[in-house]
Specification:
- The complex is a heterotrimer of chains A (203), B (587) and C (248).
- Chain A is an all-alpha fold and 203 residues long.
- Chain A has a single domain (20-51, 61-202), classed as Four Helix Bundle (Hemerythrin (Met), subunit A), CATH 1.20.120.
- Chain A is 79% helix and 0% strand.
- In chain A, helix 1 runs antiparallel to helix 5 (134-162), helix 1 (20-51) runs parallel beside helix 7 (172-202) and helix 3 packs antiparallel against helix 4 (95-125).
- Chain B has 18 helices and 4 strands.
- Chain B has a single domain, classed as Cytochrome C Oxidase, Chain A.
- In chain C, helix 2 (18-49) packs antiparallel against helix 3 (67-95).
- Chain C has helices at residues 2-7, 18-49, 67-95, 234-244, and strands at residues 105-112, 115-120, 154-157, 159-163, 168-174, 179-183, 188-192, 198-202, 208-214, 227-232.
- By secondary structure, chain C is of the alpha+beta class.
- Classes of the chains: A mainly alpha (203), B mainly alpha (587), C alpha+beta (248).
- The interface between B and C is large, with 101 and 91 residues.
- Bound molecules: heme-A (HEA) (2 copies), dinuclear copper ion and copper (II) ion.
- Dinuclear copper ion binds next to loops of chain C.
């Protein structure tokens, strides 16, 4: 079976101005917007409902570790920046710089997961489980699903990191595009956290 | 390249001599045609399973106290009691029939099979934009389907809270609901991959000259369908996660405070909202019903144009209607929830959007009918099915109107009237269109035609059978008989006058089943014995007929195609043929 | 109009608003039938007239008439007229604003797997307290008999009786899962949602012995969650209630 050539894999389509994977990731992110949109809507509905008969809705800051989460926010934003830098390095043909920045992105993501794990550990240590209250259920679910997105991103990035040399040598443009697409995903995941953090920890 | 015939994939024939590449060619293939056939065969098997489940239910509905003939002993004590099915088992069958038909049968056939196989061909592309994702999409679907089916064999049986899985019931019930949820998450991810693929393929890979307004109607329908899947499914995935956690981690997303089951307070923290699930579910499931119908309309459009030998009348109107329908379908969901305690403002909003969304459907059907004016109609087998679609969808659609008026819905909600309504759109409607599509593109896929005589022997009993099953349901529903009743309403006084209609439905379902035997025989027999066809047997104009039948191997077209005109240039005045293919330079 | 719904097989309508529900059902079915017959006739005509044998060569243009636009427009207008003329007013009057408790005979209907519990306030007209830990087979709603308002309360399992020609207000709730309270002859149907108490009202205009049906799948016993619904004359109602009054 000969590999077949799909048009606009690495070049932009003259009319739409994008290559396939870029359009693909935008569509995927549109569906992610609805995904997280549904989560946030559920959060609002449950919280508003709790105001009535069903007891209270604790303030996130009373149960959760705000300093740790603030630190994590900084970590994640930094990783978004290194992600941009890694792509920019590729664009300007500096492969070594790419590897440094890209490695840093992965490292920061792992650090984020580690801190998140510590937070979970502390909560569970205090016997605060998802089943304890609807606030905690929401907290675990929203941050857990976000963490799954981070893990997925780390896996994709790790794959690219490991095979970067080979892929770059084979098709430099296509590889650069892949990093751009991975970056778009990464920024989105980052953005979700920027919403999650105040909603769960501060409001 | 010649040996790359999709026929072989359909028959799952092993080629001893090149067994090594067999797996890559036919099992883990990235060729959209092979994947399309894989989707198609799997979906047909699921349709047959879904039908089988409902045949068991129909026996129970017509003859509630009598043991099932032949099959009664087959199911063991867990599902039957002295050969009579238990209510637990009935509820499992109902939930799984709905789920299998919608998520594992019709959508995979309409989008997975027809979309996959035809979209790249009709836009003149060598494959989908992301062949590997395409393969992943199929295998996620396959896995999700296996998980759903496997749940029947759990000690406590499968999901049993309806395909709608309303909590708190779905959270409290034992059994396969957990598996149902896991299966759904896999199916949702499968469909996300598939829909991204179809959209990118249509937007990016159209052949030169194929502007949007020259796309076949089916491609438009698939495009809008893919957007619906892409945007409506994620909220259900969220809801699925939450219900899963309610079941396995003891959270209370859908569990309000203070529930008492069997005199005991339930062990949930409470604070959840049972209606939240319904909103998230119907936010998907209403667009989902248009996912069930749009590809069907697309198929009918293609076949009507080809068999009338003239362009579709009002092609642009058709496309604007489909786009409008797609957009509107996101804001009508709560018409499934009128009786959950709704104020005037909200109910008026959803009634109004429901009335509005019926208008594009009326326009689409009208366009299809008016396209027949001035035609030279060939009553080929695919055309018979396509034509039957029109009035059948008409009945289904029209009976949606009383449901959409909340005051009429008071009486009709959750009765057999609703069952009648939606089956007319999905079964005599969509299923007929899908059959039409199978007969029409079978020569494309296999290089052979299905037998026409057997086709007619399939068509007429199917049409009569479907009407026999579903028409009585309107009367049963009007009388006030609820759906999902294990005994078909036998004990209710208000049901007594219409109980005989249950038997009519059941007997008609046997006729329907017999007709499908003819189809299955025809389907397999024609693989070997069907009349061989030339490349363009229907003398059609769209691009899938610009390549050989069956198409060359991976890559589709021997040389790149260029498009010179619209999709349905039939009977162009002064042209030499009564059809002017899109890729031909001069007529 | 009223007759159309019954012609289509609806049970008799025996409440003050059942005629209005039936009018909506009847009117929309008239529209549907007209549309189906109209389109169907055109469809059949076209299939016969333009079959290949009779019309061997197709006409590229088809029809030039724009009649269909006007028909589609008219259908849309009729639908909206049905909506605002018939459906919305009834909903606003009857469903969204049920009669207040002080102007009606008020009962609580509490659904559970798989029975309808009906709670009457008793002669004092006030519902007693109820609590989960008091629930037992003899006291399915956990009514507190030590509460002064609770002492005279009447709880009936599986049977709702009401007097004819009086406004009845039902406050509907459920102990466990979602059920749906359906009185076919009253044209009343309302989902019972856990965590909510949903009021509804109706006025029976005929006496009769009917049923309460459960319209929403609520588990393995959904099919047998049948209750009795009796509309009695005033005398009959009072003695029905007296028979069930708890001994004080
Ligand atoms: C393919 C699927 C499909 C389609 C297309 C539709 C189309 C419509 N549906 Fe349906 N519906 C379902 C599938 C579908 N539905 C399902 C599965 C359920 C139940 C789910 C469950 O509870 O389990 C449901 C339930 C459902 C309800 C909830 C009922 C209840 O639970 O009480 C409502 C209420 O508004 C509704 C309304 C409508 C309306 C107004 C349309 C309109 O879009 C229809 C518009 C179409 C027309 C008006 C026809 C026009 C055609 C002609 C005029 C031509 C006639 C031609 C000839 C005679 C030749 N539907
Ligand atoms: C797409 C959706 C779809 C389809 C096609 C069908 C098709 C059918 N349905 Fe179903 N049905 C639902 C979706 C669907 N249904 C849903 C969502 C529910 C609600 C569930 C719930 O309550 O939660 C329901 C409920 C439902 C009920 C109500 C049960 C109850 O309330 O208790 C009944 C009762 O008769 C019924 C009957 C039928 C019948 C007789 C068919 C027939 O039309 C089936 C005919 C089938 C075929 C014609 C298939 C033929 C194909 C083959 C034979 C394949 C050949 C194979 C190869 C070539 C390999 N259905
Ligand atoms: Cu209670 Cu169904
Ligand atoms: Cu709907």
């Amino acid at each position: 079976m000969a590999e077949i050539e799909i048009p606009y894999n690495s070049t932009n389509h003259p009319d739409t101005g994008v290559y396939n994977a870029k359009l693909g990731i935008w569509l995927f992110l549109a569906s992610e917007v609805l995904f997280f949109g549904a989560l946030f809507s559920s959060y609002i509905l449950l919280r508003v409902g709790a105001g009535g008969t069903a007891g209270d809705w604790p303030l996130g800051a009373d149960l959760l570790n705000v300093p740790l989460a603030t630190f994590n926010t900084v970590v994640l934003i930094s990783s978004s920046m290194t992600m941009v830098m890694s792509w920019a390095s590729l664009k300007s043909g500096n492969f070594d710089a790419f590897q440094r920045y890209f490695g840093a992105t992965i490292g920061l993501a792992l650090l984020f997961l580690l801190v998140k794990g510590l937070e979970y550990y502390a909560e569970i240590f205090h016997q605060r489980y998802p089943s304890t209250s609807t606030f905690l259920a929401t907290y675990y679910t929203m941050t857990g699903i976000h963490a799954l997105h981070i893990i997925f991103g780390v896996a994709v990035n790790a794959y690219h990191f490991v095979s970067a040399k080979r892929l770059y040598a084979e098709e430099p443009e296509r590889f650069t595009n892949r990093i751009e697409v991975a970056g778009l995903y990464w920024h989105f995941v980052d953005l979700v956290w920027i919403f999650l953090f105040p909603v769960l920890y501060l409001l | 390249m010649g040996e790359l015939q999709a026929t072989h994939a359909a028959a799952h024939e092993a080629h001893g001599d090149h067994a090594e590449s067999f797996i890559r060619k036919y099992v883990f293939s990235t060729d959209h045609k092979v994947i399309g056939v894989q989707y198609g065969v799997t979906a047909l098997v699921f349709l047959a399973v879904g039908f089988f489940l409902v045949l068991l239910m129909r026996w129970q509905l017509a003859y509630p106290e009598q043991p099932m003939p032949l099959l009664g002993g087959l199911f063991g004590n867990r599902m039957t009691d002295a050969g009579v099915m238990t209510p637990e088992f009935y509820n499992q069958l109902g939930a799984m029939h709905g789920t299998i038909m919608v998520f594992l049968g019709v959508v995979p056939l309409a989008v997975g099979a027809f979309g996959n196989y035809l979209v790249p061909l009709q836009v003149g592309a060598p494959d989908m934009a992301f062949p590997k994702l395409n393969m992943a999409s199929y295998w996620l679907y396959f896995l999700g389907g296996i998980i759903m089916l496997a749940s029947f064999f759990l000690p406590e049986g499968s999901a049993r809270s309806g395909w709608t899985s309303y909590p708190p019931l779905a959270v409290l019930e034992p059994g396969g609901q957990t598996w149902w949820l896991i299966g759904m998450v896999l199916l949702i991810n499968s469909s996300l991959l598939g829909s991204v693929n179809i959209i990118v393929t249509i937007v990016q890979l159209r052949a030169p000259g194929l502007q949007f307004m020259r796309l076949p109607f089916l491609v438009w329908a698939q495009l809008v369908t893919s957007f619906l899947l892409l945007l409506a499914f994620p909220p259900l995935e969220v809801a699925g996660f939450m219900q899963l956690l309610d079941r396995v981690a003891g959270t209370s997303f859908f569990m309000p405070t203070g529930l008492v089951v069997d005199g005991q307070a339930v062990a949930f923290s409470g604070g959840g909202n049972a209606l939240l699930w319904q909103h998230l579910f119907w936010f998907l499931a209403h667009p989902e019903v248009y996912v069930l119908i749009l590809p069907a309309m697309g198929i009918v459009g293609e076949i009507v144009a080809n068999n009338t030998r003239k362009p579709l009348w009002g092609y642009k109107t058709l496309i604007y209607s489909v786009l409008f329908l797609g957009g509107m379908s996101f804001i009508v969901w709560a018409h499934h929830m009128f009786l959950t305690g709704m104020g005037t403002a909200i109910s008026t909003f959803f009634q109004l959007t429901t009335m509005i969304i019926s208008v594009p459907s009326i326009i689409i059907l009208t366009v299809l009918i008016i396209s027949l004016w001035g035609a030279s109609i060939r009553f080929s087998t695919p055309m018979l099915f396509a034509l039957a679609f029109i009035p059948m969808f008409g009945i289904g659609g029209l009976t949606g109107l009383p449901l959409g008026l909340s005051v009429a819905d008071i009486h009709l909600h959750d009765t057999y009237y609703v069952i009648g309504h939606f089956h007319f759109v999905v079964a005599p409607g969509t299923l007929m269109a899908l059959f039409a599509g199978i007969y029409y593109w079978y020569p494309k896929v296999t290089g052979r035609r299905m037998n026409d005589t057997l086709g007619r022997w399939h068509f007429w009993p199917t049409l009569i059978g479907l009407n026999g099953v579903f028409l009585p349901m309107f009367l049963v529903g009007m009388a006030g008989v609820s759906r999902r009743l294990y005994d078909g309403g036998t004990t209710y006084a208000h049901a007594q006058d219409v109980l005989w209609l249950n038997e009519v439905s059941t007997v008609a379902s046997w006729l329907l089943a017999a007709a499908q035997v003819v189809f299955v025989i025809n389907f397999f027999l024609s693989l070997r014995n069907g009349k061989k066809v030339e490349d363009n047997p229907w003398q059609a104009t769209t691009l899938e007929w610009a390549t050989t039948s069956p198409p060359l191997g991976h890559g589709n077209f021997a040389s790149p195609v260029t498009v010179h005109r619209g999709p349905y240039e039939y009977s162009v005045p002064e042209a030499s043929n009564d059809f002017s293919p899109q890729h031909q330079e001069s007529t | 109009m009223i007759k159309i719904a019954e012609l289509l097989g609806a049970p008799i309508g025996a409440s003050a608003h059942s005629g209005q529900v039936d009018t909506v059902i009847g009117a929309v079915h008239v529209l549907m039938i007209v549309l189906f017959v109209g389109w169907g006739a055109f469809f059949t005509y076209v299939l016969i007239r333009f079959r290949q044998k009779r019309n061997p060569a197709a006409n590229y243009t088809g029809t030039k008439s724009h009649a269909s636009r006007y028909i589609e427009g008219a259908v849309a207008v009729i639908e909206v007229a049905l909506l605002f003329g018939l459906s919305v007013p009834v909903w606003a009057r009857q469903i969204a604003n049920p009669t207040p408790a002080d102007q009606a005979l008020t009962v609580r209907v509490v659904a559970q797997q798989f029975a309808w519990n009906v709670h009457y306030p008793g002669p004092d007209g006030v519902f007693g307290r109820s609590a989960v830990d008091l629930i037992s087979t003899s006291n399915p709603l956990g009514v507190d008999r030590d509460d002064i308002f609770g002492r005279d309360d009447v709880v009936s399992v599986g049977e709702l009786a009401v007097p004819v020609d009086q406004v009845v207000r039902v406050e509907l709730s459920t102990l466990d899962v979602i059920h749906s309270f359906f009185l076919p002859e009253m044209r009343v149907k309302q989902d019972a949602i856990p965590g909510m108490v949903i009021p509804l009202s109706f006025t029976p205009t005929q006496t009769g012995n009917w049923e309460i049906a459960c319209a929403q799948l609520c588990g393995v016993g959904h099919y047998r969650m049948r209750g009795f619904f009796n509309v009695l004359d005033q005398r009959g109602y009072e003695s029905w209630l007296a028979e069930r009054a708890p001994e004080l």
